[in-house]
Amino acid sequence: MLTVGPVVSPAVSRALFSSRVNRALSVSTGLPGDTGMRASVQGGAGGSGAVRGFQEIPHTGSNGWINLLRFWREGTFNQLHKHMEKTFNMLGPIYRQYLGSQSSVNILLPGDIGELFRSEGLHPRRMTLQPWATHRETRKHSKGVFLKNGAEWRADRLLLNREVMLSSAVQRFLPLLDEVARDFCHLLHRKIQMDGHGENEHRSLTLDPSPDLFRFALEASCYVLYGERIGLFSSNPSWESERFIWAVERMLATTPPLLYLPPRLLRRLHVPLWTQHATAWDHIFSHAEARIQRGYQRLQAESSGTGRTVHDSRGQFPGGTGGSVPGSGCQFPGVLGQLIERGELPLNLIRANLTELMAGGVDTTAVPLQFALFELARNPGVQEKVRKQVKDSWLQAAGNPQKALQGAPLLKGTMKETLRLYPVGITVQRYPIRDIVLQNYRIPAGTLVQACLYPLGRSQDVFQNPECFDPSRWGGAEAGRGRSIEDSSMERGSGAGFRSLAFGFGARQCVGRRIAESEIQLLLLHILRNFHLEVSSKEDINTKYTLILQPESPPTITFTTLLSSNQTLCPQ
Ligand code: HEM
């Protein structure tokens, strides 16, 4: 459903855009195009469906198409996070955003966000990424949990949770991720030995670690999903994996501008943006398909002679013979093996979900690692504090990765602090299933509401000294050393549990959360044990939004060795 507004010249619309509240032009009838639902109009000027008395929620211009044109012309799409922050500063903690055919209510305060999540219902819904859905429909691919809704979503999700979210699952994959994180450090040691300078024990090398971080994330994902290493740290990593990393980046970068336009029309018109988007997805699917086939065949080969049966009554991978047993039981066969073995999820859905996990699992972990290394490098005091805890914990844990992480809560604090300042997804969205009241405005059920994480993480109303990178604000400094700096404000404000939301919330939160948390923390743990980090400039890093938040140009870091490569191998 479109938002209807009067036609105005660009100059006039620009002026209106920057005005505080544009009530004069608001003749909006409208509701979220995305839901296809029309929530009841509650009255008030413009009838946008959310009223306090007869006031409309503040907004920055009610014609979504004019706003869209302006965003396009001014290049706002890749600065959407900054645009949101500015708009909150201008209009207060709630505003309505009209963009193309979509309208959303944007909020920022933890108390309001808590209220939103309390009304998400049994089958929470996010904004549909229509370009992704259109790609699946045109190529006749099944959808995975990211794109499904309702009871269908829940059924798949419960099966996936068992393989990747439960603590028993984490125990299975943690050693694999630990192995990949150590290998990353060996690779870095080799590079420093070859190309670095300085004394034997303390050699340094300045480099952009991003390409290796992306390889790390893909290697780690594949190990967990397929139970198999793919050799990305070897001297000649496979070309198809490099292409996969490139394809995920293209797919993400082409998504935001397509979100507000009708993808089916763009497809029919062969608009280049759509073609690029669809081609990127095709690469992602063919890479995932090849991996799944290989994994399946390997599982069959490994299982021959064991006498257990695969539950294959609900479908078969083309080319697979079916009926054999994956895994001998003593080795983790990867999420793929586990799902096949259980036989509860049809094979087309295993394929759909593993492809989503692959696509969702690389940039989302590599990018926060870029930011975390940068922040640790430009805050040497923080770096030392975290390193000290890590080293003590590592000694205590005697090489057990789970114990090592438990004993170093500042690592978790580092990850949370990184995601506070640089949330991968700049918003989390929900459609409340009942009317809710936020800031005294009534929001009808079915309205798209966005919790805006980037402005939230940088808000002085929510965090003390938000500009400071301080992992101990989340607790975890040495025991008995007093309270974290957030303690007092947590008690003061409402919604204390809704400040750290980078992985979303509740039943629909990120299904890859445990994988990502383990990957990020283990890599930081091994890097801090092995290397000292420095940056040449302490200037803030510029960021861009390409569906996820990324550095505009990847930070360059100087790594200096603290341990020799041999010492990394030893548990202590
Ligand atoms: C730091 C890393 C990551 C962050 C910050 C992140 C963030 C998010 C967020 C905010 C959501 C939406 C949650 C909600 O609506 O409440 C989400 C969903 C999802 N994420 Fe992640 N993610 C990360 C890593 C991963 C990884 C490693 C994978 C795959 C292995 C993954 C796969 C998914 C999938 C499939 C969904 C959809 C879940 C559903 O709708 O049921 N993510 N993620």
List the helices and strands and how they pair.
Elements: H1 10-18, E1 51-52, E2 55-56, H2 64-74, H3 80-91, E3 94-99, E4 102-107, H4 110-118, H5 130-139, H6 150-164, H7 167-195, E5 204-207, H8 210-226, H9 239-258, H10 263-268, H11 272-303, H12 334-342, H13 347-360, H14 363-378, H15 380-397, H16 401-406, H17 409-421, E6 427-430, E7 436-438, E8 441-443, E9 449-452, H18 453-457, H19 486-492, H20 513-530, E10 531-534, E11 543-546, E12 548-551, E13 557-561, H21 565-569
Parallel strand pairs: 4-9
Antiparallel strand pairs: 1-2, 3-4, 5-13, 6-9, 7-8, 10-13, 11-12
Helix pairs in contact: 7-8, 7-20, 8-12, 8-14, 9-11, 11-13, 14-17, 14-20, 15-17, 17-20
Bound molecules: protoporphyrin IX containing FE (HEM).
Protoporphyrin IX containing FE binds next to helix 13, helix 14 and helix 20.
